[in-house]
Write a structure and sequence with these properties.
Elements lengths: L1 H24 L14 H7 L7 H8 L9
Length: about 70
């Protein structure tokens, strides 16, 4: 019975050592894709023309600043 427990522990230690060794010595490397970037001119030509201003939208959701609109 002790021999079986010993052999299971040896196998577990070996698997753990392989896993840790592989992770430490050769970690997985992520490859990032090249960014195409954003064309600001295209954003301005495709933007909606009837959008509310930032101040109008901000104050519409924050009741504390309604005093300042007078």
């Amino acid at each position: 019975m002790n021999k079986m427990i010993y052999s299971v522990l040896v196998v577990l230690l070996a698997v753990g050592a392989i896993f840790v060794g592989r992770t430490v010595l050769a970690p997985p490397v992520a490859q990032a894709a090249m960014s195409q970037g954003i064309d600001p001119d295209q954003m301005t030509t495709h933007a909606s023309k009837g959008l509310a201003s930032f101040d109008d939208r901000y104050q519409a959701h924050i009741g504390v600043l309604d005093i300042l609109r007078q």
